[in-house]
Amino acid sequence: MKYAFTSAIAALYSLCSYAQDAALSTDSLEAETLNEIVIEAPKVIRKADMDVYHPSKSAVENSKNGIQLLNNLMIPTLSVSDALGTVKAAGQSVQLRINGREATVDQVKALLPETIRRVEWMDNPGLRYNGANYVLNFIVANPTLGGSLMTNARQALNQKFGMYMADAKFNIGRSQWEIGVNGKLTKDIKSHRDYTETFTWPDGHSLTRKETPRGGNLDNSFGNAWTSYNYIKPDTTVFIAEFVLSRKFGDKMHYDGLMSLSDGTDDINLTDIQGSDGTTPGLSLYWQQNLPRKQMLVASFSSSFYNGRTYSDYLEQIEGRPTLLTDIHTNIHDRNQAYALEVNYIKNWNTARFTTGASYVANRNRSRYDNLNGEIFHQRQDKVYFFAEYFRRMGKFTATAGVGAQYIDFLFRESGRGNSSWNLRPQATVTYAPNQRHNFRLNFTSWQSNPSLAETNVVPQQLDGFQWRIGNPNLKTANSYMLTLRYGFSLPRVNGQFGVRAFTSPNAITPLMTWHDNRLITSYENSNGLKNLSFFLAPQIEIVPDWLMASGYLQFRMERMRGTGYTHTNNAWSGSAELQLTHWGFVLSGQYGRAQRDLFGETISWGETYSTIDLSYNYKNWQFGAGVFMPFGRYDQGSKSLSRWNRNEQHMRLDMRFPYIQISYNLQWGRQKRGAHKLIDADAKVDTSTAGGR
């Protein structure tokens, strides 16, 4: 295990690793790095702009894919669920990258643990990451010839739930071919919801509706297939082409309940169904060219096309009567396209780095509403982004400063309504490292959030007997600013960080409820602002060296939200904990996570609160495992509305307590060609509609 006291940071994070590992293969692209002094030390290397984790021999031997290896590293703050295929940090999304290029969980899972040289964890990512909360970069270096095959299957014993994957790589000269498939089966999972709501009219009278669950089920099945080609000309050029086909076979929530009303009227049977299905092919191209004098030019293009539908059905019927009180059907067919192009230029010196870039993203959305006699609506959205960032090391201090500029323009063709705006995105980081075991980092960052298709869609959608939703095309891009102070420490058997974070979004885009002609309309506004203050602690403890480890994350957040006619506050704890015992090829682990309670608009919402116990055994190329998801506690995901017009609380309950078995097999032959490195990845994520639903 190495501990690096950084004299100067690498030209680019992924490119630095490429140069460091170049001795492993003569068929590699030369990369310029800055000088670095390396000495022996424990688990984590704290650099000015990232924490670097080198997988131990035990972590590699007890893993059969990239997600398992990440879980075995037990990085503080991270919540990794191999059973669910998710990676989160402090309840927020994590941008995954492989050698600098953006990647999916499936692509990380397809990594061979033996090829992962290190994992770079960035909790203050720079401007080139375009507003990401956290970035996790896997530095992968493969040998030169041969190939590999990896397979994995996880199947629940008492539910129609399973996850399956296979991936193969073949190397011929300077070229590498890859083909892979994966799928997830979630079918007829029993579910219900606990739901109570009180409506209050402007004249002061109110009505309470309480639902008694009568059953329901969840479907969430999908499949992906991918193939890629990369070509590497040593010291000169990298070219990558990737094609991915994603299919959502069924994503549906079906709920049946009995609704009782406080005004004494007859009880009502209700059925609430929401779902979607569709196909998304995607193509990406990547080109990287080394130039003289430590310069580099990188370009990336991607495109995707979505053809699918989003639907909802809401029925109300008085028990024993043949006629329906409410009969709402929404069916939206989307044919949406997205295109993205990004170009970066990097220049390195001995103690400094300069990066600049530009990107363009175009979304073209076409939605057909079957419930409106097949009426068709078109939306166009264009986004242009420029940035420049400079890094320099000065003794025990390092500093990074930069600014980004973003232009957003969107338009509804049929109505001619739209909006456009320019926004600046300044960012700066200062790090002080008095010695090799301690560092202090102060980071200021900012970003913008664009109005979504659902938030700007002017087509009225009925939700139930008197609730409707309609978008606001006059929304402006929302700005967010965050200031974070972190103290990182590396002590014998203990490492981690403690910090405080202040956040504000003065014009956050939030839902807004108003009464109009006895209808409760949910629209959207640029609010008067969200502010929060968080304190967090994230330790990793080596209880028994090489045998027993623990890691966790604990956060306390105080929030205030202001909008039209309201001010709300929220204080809440959240966190996660993991304990792992490793010996004689066995790995026994337990996880628990309490979801973060987020205040946004007039709603407090929370994600999955989960627990898992897992036992696996590794034998040669095989891994056999068994475990239980939700062995204790109760699965809960829901929200609470604080609106004066509609106060409600909803808990979504799923029958997620299931035992499972898992089998993995990895095979390698010859010596693999070194994997190509993407330093950037243009983002062309296609947008989709949202159907009405309570």
What does it look like?
The chain is mainly β. Helices cover 4% and strands 67% of the residues. It is built from five helices and 41 strands. The protein has a 26-stranded antiparallel beta sheet that branches. A six-stranded mixed beta sheet has the order 3-4-10-11-8-9, sandwiched between helices. It has a four-stranded mixed beta sheet with strand order 26-27-31-30, with no helix packed on it. Strand 22 (375-394) and strand 23 (397-412) form a beta hairpin. The longest helix is centred in the N-terminal third of the chain and has 8 residues, at 13-20. The protein is globular and about 75 Å long.
Summarize the structure.
This protein has 694 residues and is mainly β.
Q: By helix and strand content, what is the structural category? A: mainly beta
As a percent range, the share of strand residues is over 45%
Q: What global shape is seen?
A: globular
**Fraction of residues in H or I helices:** under 10%
Q: What is the helix tally?
A: 5
Instruction: Tell me the major beta sheet.
Output: 26 strands, antiparallel
What are the segments in which pLDDT stays under 50 over at least 5 consecutive residues?
1-42, 672-677
Mean pLDDT: 85
The count of DSSP E runs of length 2 or more, i.e. the number of strands, is: 41
Q: In angstroms, what separates the terminal alpha carbons?
A: 52 Å
